[in-house]
Specification:
Blueprint (H helix, E strand, L loop, with lengths): L1 E12 L2 E10 L4 E12 L2 E5 L2 E5 L5 E5 L6 H25 L4
Antiparallel strand pairs: 1-2, 2-3, 3-4, 5-6
Amino acid sequence: MTIEILNYEKANKGKVVGYLDIKATLKEPTIIAKRIAHLESNGKSWLNLPNFILELPDGSKSFVPWWQLYPQTTNAQFMEAIKQKLDLHLAAKENDSLPF
C-alpha cells in the first residue's frame, strides 16, 4: 500500500487543526479521500474520516464515517499509516519554512 498526501489545509475549529486529502493505492483500485480531519487535544493528535451525524433514538448524536476498511484492525492500521505520512509531510513543511 502506498499513501500520498495530496493537500493539507490548516484550520482552527475547536479540536480540528487541519484537513487533508490523500491518495491510497492498495493494489487495485486507488482511493482518493478528501477532507480527512486532523484533530489535536490534550497533547494528542488523530485523524477522522469524513463523516455524517446520525441522530439516535434517544436524541443524542453520533458521528459516523462515510466509509472505513473492514475488518476494524485493518482500518486502524490504515489510519495509522495515514497519520505517519501526515507527520512526515508536516515535518517537511516545517523544514521548508526555516530561513536557512
